[in-house]
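Protocol step 4 of 6: structure prediction from sequence.
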Amino acid sequence: MMPPSVKKKTAYLVTTFHRAEYLPIMDSAKLGSSGGIDAFGQVEYGGIKPLRTKVRTVKGDRAKLNPTFNDELWVPLSLPTMSSKVKYSIWDYDR
């Protein structure tokens, strides 16, 4: 609850996911092939629904699991804010 003398403004926290490097193999390998990962990035702030990048699929040994995202995520903020914690994470997508 904010006092009426405090004016609220809307702003955006802009986050850019460029690249993730040396991720662990999360998808099992089929006969004769290497495993891979279906990676996506995620940003959480202030209790809103997490924003996600597109899923990037990379196959190969662990040294080659470096998905390139180049995605921007715009998280809306209401200033002044009561939250100061931003959580960034990389996930593997599985149905």
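Step 5 (inspection) to follow. The chain has a mean pLDDT of 85.
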